[in-house]
Amino acid sequence: MSLRVAVVDDEELARGLVLEHLAAHPDVTVVAECANGLEAIEAVAAHAPDLVFLDVQMPRLTGFETLELLEPRPAVVFVTAYDRWALKAFEVHAVDYLLKPFSRERFDAALARARALLGAGARGPDPSLLAAAARPEGQALERVAVREGTRVTVLPVEAIDWVGAEGDYVRIRSGDRSVLKLQSLADLAARLPADRFVRVHRSWVVNVARLAALEEGRTAVMADGTRVPVSRAGAARLKELLPRG
Amino acid sequence: MHPILARRERLFAYVLAWVPLAGIQAYLLALPGSLSWGEAAALSGPLALVYAFLCLSSFYACRSAPLTRARTASVLGVHVVGALIAASLLTLAGSTLASLLGSFPAFSTLPERFGQAVPPLFVLGVLLYLLSVTLHYILLSLESSQAAERRAMEARVLAREAELEALKAQLNPHFLFNALNSVSALTTSAPAKAREMCVLLSDFLRRSLSSGERTLIPLREEIVLARQFLAVEQVRYGRRLEVEEEVEDSLLGVPVPPLLLQPLVENAVRHGVATLIEGGTVTLRVEKAGDGVRIAVENPYDPETPAPAGSGLGLSLVRRRLAAVWGRAAELEEGGDGKRFRVAVVVPPGRPEEA
To answer: Which residues, in sequence order, are bridge partners of residue A29?
Structure first.
């Protein structure tokens, strides 16, 4: 089975090493070589590789943030020097991981494993599960990577006004910008800082700092004028966070 | 806390010490011949017991008038007044006891003759009280010297811990594994460069291990270490990492703790240049700062990249090590303007004990 692969690492030497190992497999085609997450997102959108070798520590976007924005979703082998949270995530969800420096045998084994999973029709790991497992317990998100087309931006969580569920996507509102991201609301809600964000409804999460008014306890009016429905449980959660109901 | 009441074995020894004192008291009461031996003994037993506990109160007077700080006159004043009050109370207790004993037929004439026993009892009371003052001062100075020793010990342990932590931080696994990965990559593509990298890495490791064994090294050697570290990182990051130096050679003799700069240059690469796609320049600067020397590390950074958990640890360790060597005479300055981050250590000239 021929395999289309992208290699993502901010170090040229490290990319070269992966490319060298891949060269020994004639059925592998390298469709992209990227020096950071932003390039990777563009390249994956353009070439739809089956498999991505992805570094974890990179400038601008970490490997995990990049993974969340890759579409269509490839299978992923992480390549990292050492990151105990990343390792924990791999154990739970990832196709495989390579610890730098690695041997040719270890590299070939990772490739074989990815190939077997792809052959069996398996999708890549669920990026948000992987990213959630890679965060130290109890540590909330500080920023959320979003993209519009191929333009990627990183929103600090305090810049988010509200988040609403739309099918498989979440709509994230920040000032006059509104972007869709492929992620479940439950997952994002669980990772936003609990002292600032409240899930007021099955399909809505609000930043309490952007709350303008509560109408009869059933509708929240946001600072930007958006009217957000509040469920009974949501109202109770909101009450806990607001000093005066 | 009262040094005698606080510990059972001390209280026991103290009460035991009063047994011979009670004997002396009985002897002094019977000596003038006004009281019989039996009467003197009957008075002395209970009185000594009461007075033993009364004298414990002198601790509070001693603590409020410490010998090292209070003026001699006020120390004397406090204790003489204390002694007169205590002796008066002893005499009062004696006369009360005498009248109580008077109700027994054997001691029926005691209350009339007790007046003759008052002067020796009062004098003895004053002397015993002053004796207990001496005892309490001895206990107090014993305790304060123990506390001072404990503090000195704690300071030593803290300094030692800082050294160990510095050495541990030195062997950063990320740095080593990434450097080895670079070697692995170069082995086939550029064997001569791979060998060069092995030598660079070994030189750095050897030098950092040997300097870690000393308590102070000349700044010159620290700068060499920083250069070697940055050279290894330059192989890894390629064109993304540039290094610039503005070093005044005449200042490089100043002694510093080994590996002091290591966390600073490491942060400059890891949390600075490495967060930027296009990379940037790390600047090492050594310049005069008043009488002392300022050693600064500057780097560009991405203000949107959140500082990872634990990244402040390196700086707080540097701060503690500076404090352990120079106390308040050394400083750590840090700050960023959104584009470049600058951290600087300002150390006094000369060896720390002269500073």
So the answer is: A4
Q: What is the pLDDT of residues B41-93, one digit of tens each?
A: 888 888 888 898 888 888 888 888 888 777 888 888 889 999 999 999 999 99
Q: Is A220 helix (H, G, I), strand (E, B) or coil?
A: strand
Q: Do A89 and A185 fall within a single domain?
A: no
Please tell me the pTM assigned to this model: 0.69
The pLDDT, as a whole number, for residue B274 is 93
Residues B239-284: tens digit of each pLDDT: 999 999 999 999 999 999 888 898 899 999 999 999 999 999 999 9
Q: Rounded to a whole number, what is the distance in Å from the CA of B225 to chain A's nearest CA? A: 23
Contact A101 B305 (CB under 8 A): no
- CB crowding B86-100: b at 16 or more within 10 Å, else e: bbeebbebbbebbee
Nearest to B302 among A10, A11, A59 (CB): A59
Contact B178 A11 (CB under 8 A): yes
| Nearest alpha-carbon partner for A58 in A32, A30, A86, A92 | A86
Across the interface, whether the CB atoms of B238 and A13 are under 8 A apart is answered yes
Based on the domain organization, do A114 and A182 belong to the same domain? no
The answer to whether A22 touches A14, Cβ cutoff 8 Å, is no
The whole-number average pLDDT for the span B220-230 is 95
Answer whether residue B172 shows pLDDT above 80. no
User: Is residue A124 located within the same domain as residue A23?
Assistant: yes
pLDDT in tens, A137-191: 667 888 888 888 778 888 899 999 999 999 889 999 999 889 998 888 988 888 8
Domain that holds residue A106: 3-133
Residue A145 lies in a domain: no
Q: What is the mean pLDDT of residues A55-61?
A: 90
Residue B209 to residue B212: CA distance in whole angstroms: 5
CB pairs under 8 A between A and B: 70
Locate the DSSP E strands across chain B.
Answer: 217-218, 241-247, 255-256, 280-289, 292-300, 331-336, 340-347
Q: Which of B260-272 are b and which e, b meaning 16 or more Cβ less than 10 Å from the residue's Cβ?
A: bbbbbbbbbbbbb
Of A14, A20, A139, the CB nearest to B181: A14
The reply to whether B310 touches chain A by the CB within 8 Å rule is no
CATH number of B171-347: 3.30.565.10
Residue B347: pLDDT band (50, 70, 90) is: very high
Q: Residue B354: pLDDT band by 50, 70, 90 thresholds?
A: very low
Which positions in chain A have a beta carbon within 8 angstroms of at least one beta carbon in chain B?
A: 10-14, 16-17, 20, 35-36, 38, 57, 59-60, 81-82, 99-101, 136, 139, 142-143, 154, 156
| Number of structural domains found in chain A | 2
- In this structure, is residue A210 part of a structural domain? yes
A104 and A185 fall within a common domain: no
Is B185 in Cβ contact with A20 (below 8 Å)?
Answer: yes
CATH code for position A125: 3.40.50.2300
Test the B interface: residue of A100, A106, A137 with most B CBs within 10 Å: A100
Sheet of B340-347, strand order = B241-247, B280-289, B292-300, B340-347, B331-336
Q: Tell me, what DSSP letter sits at residue A158?
A: G
**End position of a domain, from candidates A100, A133, A166:** A133
Domain of A193: which CATH number? 2.40.50.1020
Q: Are residues A35 and A129 in the same domain?
A: yes
Domain definitions of chain B by residue range:
8-153, 171-347
B217, pLDDT greater than 80: yes
This model of the complex carries an ipTM of 0.81
Q: How far is B302 from chain A (nearest CA, A)?
A: 8
